[in-house]
Amino acid sequence: MQETMITPRENFIAALEGREPPLGIPHFELVFYLTMEAFGKVHPSHRHYSQWKQMEEKERRLHREDMARIYLYTAERFEHSAILLHPNPGGEDETCRLVDLIREMSGDRYFLMLHGDATFGIPAGDKMEEFSARLAEEPEAVLAEASAMVDKALARAERLKKRTSVDGFALCADYCLNSGPFLSPRLFGKFVAPFLKRLTKGYRDMGYYVVKHTDGNIMPIIDDLVDSGPHALHSLDPQAGVDIAEIKAKYGRKVCLIGNVNCGKLDTGTDEECVASARYCLERGSPGGGYIFSTSNCIYTGMRLYRYELILNEWRRFVKEKSAEKKAAGDAAKGA
């Protein structure tokens, strides 16, 4: 009988569900922007598509194929188990075409995600004062807007379910600064948490997986985040004092953890500090399953590619070590 091969996608899902991933700790990055350095290709979300409507369909098809290949080149070279797509140009039809094209090229090898947040994050700098005033002066209108955003997102998810094969959503509204949440825990509990919970439940009821992302110091609102029911939390920001060992001990049985490798160290630290951050996360996050290796943000423009490859090699070493330990333990058990 032919042995069934486990895909990176299945390995990723095992971690999301809190199980021991059969292939070892999965890896992915929310975004990998260094496609020019790695492949000589501009990242899909950095392209300018103001003339998209003027293109003939054959030109659009070439762009779609190029974007799909970039996502797949990235996943293959850097051993990502999941891909978060940034369809550009926007629009639901183009999103579906890109998802379908990647599935056509790779089958079910990779877990595919789209952006799917519909909750209030930190406003842009020029909107902070206005948004804060609205919370005090017209709270009912803000609550109605929050509810409508969730309704719209869930309706989109229903349509996507019928049209394409996305596995889940990354909810990428940022709630926190390094010092703590933008909204106080009380205001967060009123204007964000109930809607995050309804959004997450709606996605899960449709069969989607949900990864909740936010940078910053999440500790004052982490109970609300976990209670909202995502499969995973990302990015567990060490620059804001979030320690994966503490999160693992308190919440590791309730939610998968993704991230915590210090992006600041990748920019300004030493090589040794980068490796140490990766090793710390692997050792503290992986026991018992439910951990996915990742940086605490993404592989952003300006980061040195070799620094990313440095922590990636540490992940590879760790996975290899654990695989050898598991094999040795199995051999010993057979001989006992």
Strand count, sense and closure of the main sheet?
7 strands, parallel
Query: Helices and strands, in N-to-C order?
Result: HHHEHEHHEEEHHEHEHEHHEH
* Total of helices: 13
Instruction: Specify the helix fraction band.
Output: 40-55%
As a whole number of angstroms, the C-alpha radius of gyration is: 20 Å
Class based on secondary structure composition and strand pairing: alpha/beta
In CATH terms, what is the architecture?
A: Alpha-Beta Barrel
CATH class: Alpha Beta
Number of domains: 1
Strand order within the widest sheet? Answer: 1-2-3-6-7-8-9
- What is the strand tally? 9
Quote the distance from N terminus to C terminus.
28 Å
Average pLDDT number: 95
CATH topology: TIM Barrel
Instruction: State the shape.
Output: globular
Q: Which band does the percent of strand residues land in?
A: 5-15%
**Spans of 5+ residues with little confidence (pLDDT < 50)?**
none
